[in-house]
Every structure is written in C-alpha cells, then in structure tokens.
Amino acid sequence: MTIELTDSLKNLLQETATQLKGAARRHFQAQTVISLGYGGQLLAQKELGWDRNTIRKGIKELSSGINCVDNYSGRGRSKAEENLPNLLEDIKKLVDSQSQTDPSFKSQRLYTRLSASEVRKLLIEKVGYSDEELPTSETIRIKLNDLGYKLKRVAKVQPQKKFPKRTQSLSS
C-alpha cells in the first residue's frame, strides 16, 4: 500500500519541515516517512527533497528515544589566532613603530601608515611566516581594526591660494 502525495500535501509537509529545526525536524520527517510505509524514504527524497541520512537519523532517534546533539558552534572556520597564536603580537610589533595616536586626542585610535597588504608582506619577510599559512590581507585588515589601528592616508600638501598682493595707493 503506497500513499500518493498531492501537491497541497507536499507543500504542507515541506513548509512544516522548514519551520522546524534540529531534532524536532528529524522527528517530523521520520514520523512522516514511517506513516508513508514501505518505500517512504525514497518517496520523501524524490518528492519532498528530504535527505535520506537525516530521515534515518530521525528514525534511530525515535526508536532509541535518545536525541543526537547538534554541534552548531563547532562548525565553521577557526580564527587565525587559533592557528597562529603569535600573529597578533607580531602584528603589534610591526605596526607600533609605524603608528601614531590621534593628533586631536579625541579617540584612543592609533593611526598607521602601513596598509594591510604591507603588513602581510612584512610578516613574511621579517617574522618568517610563509605565504600559505598567513591569512589574506583582508583578514589582516580586520585584525588591525580589532587591535585599534586605523589606516590613515597621508594628506597631500594642498597648494596655498595665491592672494592678490596689496598695492599701496599713491594718494597723498
């Protein structure tokens, strides 16, 4: 006995599944597949676009009564400081000699003349990092901002306006 899925039933099942997250979603998908009967996993994969591994995980959770813990915080790329623990200290050493405080003393910001790509080149040349292990210059720019440095362009010298010379009148 197979159940035929109408378009309205497909939409209802898909919308309900997208509103649920984690274990609740897996439980819903597993219960739906179990109610579909034999071949329900394949039917759910083809007609609803559900992943069969997720469905299997949900069925195991239902039968055992134990929910799997999702490790969302463990996903993604680790920070550059975790892979290179001395990176921030090395950046500070290089940039401190090329930086100055805010001349108006309105903020604690440090202004530097070095760009992020120049800092990256100096890390390779002077400190001994390899090109492959260092993050991109965009990441180094973000690290510089986090450390309190701000790239300040040197203002070009503005030509002074030519004022007309005062002429003394010869009226006596």
Give a verbal description of the structure.
This protein is mainly α. The chain has 2 domains: 7-64; 80-151, no CATH class. Helices cover 50% and strands 5% of the residues. The chain contains 8 helices and 3 strands, in the order H-H-H-H-H-H-E-E-H-H-E. The chain has helices at residues 7-19, 22-36, 40-48, 52-64, 80-83, 87-96, 116-127, 137-146; strands spanning 99-101, 110-112, 149-151. The protein has a 3-stranded mixed beta sheet. A hairpin with an 8-residue loop joins strand 1 (99-101) and strand 2 (110-112). Helix 2 crosses helix 4. The longest helix is centred in the N-terminal third of the chain and has 15 residues, at 22-36. The mean pLDDT is 82.
| Biggest sheet: strand arrangement | 1-2-3
Tally of separate helices: 8
Q: Please count the beta strands (DSSP E, at least 2 residues each).
A: 3
Number of structural domains: 2
What's the end-to-end separation, in Å? Answer: 122 Å
What is the overall shape?
A: elongated
Oligomer: single chain
Provide the gyration radius in Å: 32 Å
Instruction: Return the structural class.
Output: mainly alpha
Q: Spans of 5+ residues with little confidence (pLDDT < 50)?
A: none
Which sequence of SSEs, written as H and E, runs from N to C? HHHHHHEEHHE
Strand residue content = 5-15%
Largest sheet: 3 strands, mixed
Mean pLDDT: 82
Percentage of residues assigned to helices? 40-55%
